[in-house]
Amino acid sequence: MLGLRGTLLCRLLPEYSRDASGALRAYSMYPPTYIKPVYQKEKLEELIESGEAKEREFTPVRAAYNSHTSSVFHDSLVRKFTNHVMKTGQKSLSRELVEQTFREIKLIQLRKWNQTQTPEEKSVIECDPNKIFHKAVENCRPLLIVSPIKRGGVTYQVPMPVTEHRSYFESMRWLVKAGREKERTIHFPQQMARELLSAAKNEGRAVKMKQDLHQLCEANKAYAHYRWG
Amino acid sequence: MTNQHLLPEEVNRRQIHYGKFIMHLSPLMLGTMYRLPNGKFRKTGRRPSRWPFPYNNVLPLALRNEVSGKGDKQQNLACLHEMSILFACMKKNDFVQSLCSKEINSFQKCHLNFLQAQKLKKEQEREGNLVPYARNMSHRQVNQLLKQYPQPK
Amino acid sequence: MAVRAVAGRFISCIHNNELLLCHRSIVGRTRRSSSTQAVEEPRPIASRTVITNPSHHTSDHIGSWYTLEPNTVKRLFGHGGIPKPYRTLCDAFFESSLMVRQPALSTIDYIKRSNLNLPPNKFMLYGNNGVGKTISLVHITHFLAEDGWVLVHVPVPSQWRRVFKEVVPSATNPDQYDHTRDSVMWLQHFRSQNTELLKSLQLETSEHYTWTQREATEVGQPLMTLADFGISRARFASDCVTAIIKELKQCASQDRCKVAVVIDGINSLFCPTSRYRLEDLTYLPPDRFTIFRAFLSLLQSDWKNGVIVGTIDKRDNEGERRKSYLPRYLLRQKGWEALDPFIPIPVVDYDEVEMRSAINYYLDRGWLQSPHSGSDVGRKELAALSNHNPLTFMEICKSI
C-alpha cells in the first residue's frame, strides 16, 4: 500500500521523496529525481572511469552538506563521533574537543615511542590516534542488545541481535559516556584520550559497559523467544 | 429490563429482521443470559433475565475475494539456536569475545542472512509480482490471484 | 645620530637577505612524484644541522633544525621563555629543537656587528600572530648566552600587568607598587640564567643598600647576593630587581660586562592600564609598578655595552588595540618614542622550503601520523590549511 501511495505521492508532490532505504520521506527539500552529491575525489575518478559520470551528466544534484569534505585527513567515523560528543549543536566546540583528544593520545603514545630506542620496541607502540580510535570503537561494539517487551503485564528485557549501525551507535555512546564520567578538574579530552587508549586495549569503562550488557543478555536468554517483529 | 418476563417466543418477536440480519433492540447481558449446562436455572431464586441467543448468520456463508495481511507478519525469531550456542560459549569463556570468534561469526552471519531475506521479502511484497510455482505467497500475491479468479457465486 | 646611521646600514642588509630568501624559495627542492593514494613510505628524516652553537649558523642552514642541549634549555628557559604548547611538544619529542630562520639569523648577525661603544642597539621582531617571533627570540637568547652576554630576559611582561600573583604598595617608595611573587620568580629566572657567568665576571655591588634596620647589602658584595636576598625576602624583591638593573647598567658602562636585554612582548610595557585596581577603583597605570620602571630604564640610551632585543606582539596589547601587528600601532606614541631608534625585523610565515622542512620534522618525530600526511596531496593540504603559518600548522597537526 505504502509503496504505491509513495510512488504516486512522489510523482504528484515534490515534497515527498524516497531515501536510500526506500522509505518515504515527507517534506524533503528535493524531489526523488535529485541524486546525492559525490564529493570524494577518488569516487569521482571511479565514476568517470566506470562511465557512470556520463549518465549523471544531466541529472540534478542535491547541495552538499557543509560537513562533506574531500580532505585526505577526513574520516567519516571520526565525524560521527564528533556528533556524539556534541551538545546543543555546538559542533565547532565538539570538533575542537575531539581534536584535543587525538592530540592527547598522540602525546601519551609519542612519549613512549620517543623514549624507546630499538626499532622493534617502537614498532609495537601504536601512535596513530585514528587507528587507536577505530580499534576502540570496534572493541566496544556489542553483539546483542536487550529490548523491553511487555508480556502479560510484565516488561521483559529480551536479548536480540543488533544491527551493524546500532552497534556503532552504542559503542560510541558508551565511549562518550565513559569520557564524561570524570572529576571536575580533569578536562574532557584527557579523560576521553585515556578511555580510547584503554578501550583499544580492550579495557576500561566503555568495554565494561559492553560486557555488562552481554552478561545481562545471557541472564535473560530464557526470554529470547519473546522477540517480536 | 423490559423483556425480563418474556418467553423465548416473545423475545424472538421483539427482534427486527433487517434483510438477512437480525438486530436486537436492547443490549445483551451475557452473564445472566444462559441456562446452566444441565438445562436448569441457577438456584438463586431467580429466572435468567434473558433467554439464550439464537443463531444468526451475520456474515454470509461464503469465502471472500481477499485475504488480510495479518498472517504474513514477520516471525522475528530467527537465529535462536546460534544465540544459545553463543551464550554457552561466552559463559564458558567469561565473556571474552576473542575466544568465541567462531560462534560470533556464525551468529552474525545468521542474523545478516535473516535481515537480507527479510529485506528481499519486503521488496518482493512491495512489488507484488507473481512467482510461478511458489509454495508460499504473500497476501498481496494471493489477493492478486483472487482478483483474477474470484470465488464462484 | 651614530645609532641612526648604524640602523640605516642594517636595513639595507635586510633587503639583501630577503632577496636571498626569495631566491632559495624559487629554487626549492624537486617535489616527489604525486600520488593520491596513501602509501606506506619510510618516514622522511628531518633536515637537521649538527651545529648547536647559534653563532655558527649561516643562511645555508635556513629551514634546518638544530637541537638545544637539555641542560641549556633548563638553564635558560627553565623559568619560562618557550611557549607552553611548544614546550609540550618538546617534552613529547624528547628533544628541544628549533628551526633556523632568517629573522633570528639577521638579528644575530646584527648583534655581532654592533658597535658596543655606542648606546645599545634595539632590535624589534614584529609580525602577525604565530609567525615565530618568540621562537626566534629563543634562538637569539641562546646565541646571547653562548656569546657571553649577561641576560636580562623577560619572558612574559604582560603577565605582570594582567595576571600578576600579588601586588602591594612599595616598601621604599610610596608612589610605587611592587610585584612580590612575580619579582621573586623573575629573580630566580635571572639567577638560573646567569649564575655561572656572573661568577666568572666577578661583578660587585657599588652601593650600600639598606633594606631594614637589620638587613642591608654592603658595598663590594657579589651581584648575585642581591638576587638571593630578593628571593628570600619577597617584600624587597622588586627593589632588588631595580638594584640589579642599575648595577648591571653601571658595570656595562664601565666595560666590565656586556648586557643583553631580551623582552618578549615589549609593547606590554607601554600599555596605559594594568588590571590592578586602587582603592578608588581606578586602574593603576603600569609605569607605577617598580619592575616596569626598572625595565623601562634599560631602554634609555644612557649606557653602552648592551643590546636590546624584543618582540612586538598583538596579544600583549589589551583587547581593543590588536587590529594591526605593525609596531607604530602596537607601541603607541609613548613606546615609539621610548624605543626610537630601533631596527624593525619582520618575522613572516614559512616559505616553501621551511614548510617542507617543518612537515618533515613532524613526520620524523611522529607528530604527523596520518599515512596521507607525507604524500604530495597531504603536504599541499597542510600548507593550504595552515596558510604557511607556523602556529596554525602546529594547531592543525594536533589531530592528524
From TrEMBL, chain A:
Small ribosomal subunit protein uS7 domain sequence ranges: 66-221
Q: Which CDD domains match?
A: uS7_Mitochondria_Mammalian
Q: Which Pfam families match?
A: Ribosomal_S7
Tell me which UniProt keywords the record has, alphabetically: Ribonucleoprotein, Ribosomal protein
What is one cellular component GO term in this UniProt entry? Answer: ribonucleoprotein complex
Q: Which domain of life is it from?
A: Eukaryota
Is Ribonucleoprotein found in the keyword set? yes
Name the InterPro entries on file: Ribosomal_uS7 (IPR000235), Ribosomal_uS7_dom (IPR023798), Ribosomal_uS7_dom_sf (IPR036823)
GO BP: any one term = translation
Similarity remark: Belongs to the universal ribosomal protein uS7 family.
Q: What is this protein called?
A: Small ribosomal subunit protein uS7 domain-containing protein
Q: Which organism is it from?
A: Petrolisthes cinctipes
- Highest lineage ranks of the organism? Eukaryota, Metazoa, Ecdysozoa, Arthropoda, Crustacea
From TrEMBL, chain B:
Q: Its Gene Ontology molecular function terms?
A: RNA binding
Supply the InterPro entries for this chain.
Answer: CHCH, Cys_alpha_HP_mot_SF, Ribosomal_mS37_met
Top-rank taxon, per record:
Eukaryota
Can you supply one Gene Ontology CC term for this chain's record?
nucleoplasm
Keyword Chaperone recorded: no
- Whether Disulfide bond counts among this entry's keywords is yes
Residue span(s) of domain CHCH: 79-111
Keyword tags: Disulfide bond
Q: Which GO terms describe its biological process?
A: mitochondrial translation
Q: Which Pfam families match?
A: CHCH
Q: What is this protein called?
A: CHCH domain-containing protein
Provide the species name: Petrolisthes cinctipes (Flat porcelain crab)
UniProtKB/TrEMBL annotation, chain C:
Q: Give the UniProt subcellular location, in the record's own words.
A: Mitochondrion
| Molecular function (Gene Ontology), one example | structural constituent of ribosome
Q: Where is the signal peptide?
A: none
SUPFAM superfamilies, A to Z? P-loop containing nucleoside triphosphate hydrolases (SSF52540)
Gene Ontology terms: cellular component: mitochondrial small ribosomal subunit
Judging by the UniProt lineage, the source's domain of life is Eukaryota
Which BP terms from GO are recorded?
Answer: apoptotic process
Protein name (database record) = Small ribosomal subunit protein mS29
| Origin species | Petrolisthes cinctipes
- Lineage, broadest ranks: Eukaryota, Metazoa, Ecdysozoa, Arthropoda, Crustacea
